[in-house]
Specification:
By secondary structure, the chain is mainly α. Helix content is about 70%, strand content about 0%. It has three helices and no strands. The radius of gyration is 23 Å and the shape is elongated.
Length: about 80
């Protein structure tokens, strides 16, 4: 049978643990729910950061090729078709 949850132990400094407890109560969520939401938000932020880094890289490469507009890029994409 596949386990649906895996217990996880996390050590926090007392002040952070107290803040986490307070936030859990303020949000009316148990600590597991709050941690899952926080972790998902972190993952989303990481994906967004990766996307923006790739976007900056692409823009830099396009500038190197003197492609400054979407029309320039479209012309390259359809070149030779």
């Amino acid at each position: 049978m596949t386990q649906k949850r895996v217990p996880l132990t996390v050590s926090l400094p007392p002040s952070l643990a107290k803040e986490f407890e307070r936030l859990s109560k303020d949000e009316a969520k148990n600590k597991s729910q709050l941690f899952r939401e926080m972790f998902r938000a972190y993952q989303q932020r990481q994906r967004e950061q990766e996307f923006y880094e790739l976007q900056r890289y692409g823009a830099k490469q396009a500038r190197k090729q003197h492609m400054l507009t979407e029309d320039d890029i479209e012309a390259l994409v359809f070149q030779g078709r």
